[in-house]
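Record type: monomer structure entry
Structure origin: computed from sequence
Chain ID: A
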Amino acid sequence: MTIIKMDPAEYAISAEYFPLLLDILERRSITEEQLLEPLTLEPGFWREPGQRIPLPEFEQIGRRVFELTGEPWLGWEFGAGMTISSHGFLGYAAMSSETLGDAIELAVRFFRTRTTIVELQHRVEGDTAVLQIDELVSLNELAPFIVEALFSSFHFMAQRLVPDILPEGELRFAYPEPSYFHRMRDLIPVPCRFDCAHHQMRFPARDLDEKLRFADPRLASMAEAQCEQELASIKSPPRLLGQVRRIILGRSGEFPDVDEVAEELYMSSRTLKRKLQQLGTSYQRILDELRKGLAVEYLSQSDKTVDEIALSLGYSDASNFARAFRRWTGRSPSDYRS
């Protein structure tokens, strides 16, 4: 039987990233005191070793940053400014790995030492490597800041570790295109797709074999041992959102209702609804987001007709699907495809 206990404090991010955020604000003449003035956090809280920022407080910080700067695109700058040391021992373990693939495997394995708000998944699909960010708790309005910061950080880290690597592939985001994206479009070296089923960085699988310029087996072993110690002290929060998504996607076009999913998780539908609400979302919202993401991918990357896509997504006819797609995106399927 699956028993899932929710503790909001388990969803957090390492405070080691906070000084970088303060540096960004300082360049805009905004002080730490100004940032934290309306919040419950005290200036200097981040200096405590091992300090982590729970998601509710990080959400407050994010909203305050946007309020003070008026720059909701700061995630790109935040990620670009991250150095090896910003990622703690995980940064040093990745830096000293033999290949890019080895570094990514370490990042996936020890990402919990950096945050339990999201987790990393990695796989290879044919000749394409996929690095996927899965939300462990619904990020809602904070999603663009966190996801864009991570993708930006991954890009610039790879450039430092493998200077000759060419930026190829694409970025996929599971949220609509932000209103500010036109400011960033020319600065991002690969195509970006929005309203997708997942947050993904996709790039040539051959890049995984690239040798890292700072490879050092001895340092890698020492840093990995430190990561193991750190990982053991951080509790892994429930992966309920991922479990629900996997159950929905595992039915091959037959999208289950909330009662069926709850049954597979050995809980009542009322309990499942309550736990999803605690994570900032609902079953219907998860279902709609997955259907929307799959619809966008089918329309942009396949030759399926609208009727075939509607059937694949569990709709009885194309008109019902078209109404849902317009509600999600503001456009008809045919308009989106063209």
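Annotation 1: The domain at 240-337 is CATH 1.10.10.60 (Arc Repressor Mutant, subunit A).
Annotation 2: The longest helix spans residues 143-161.
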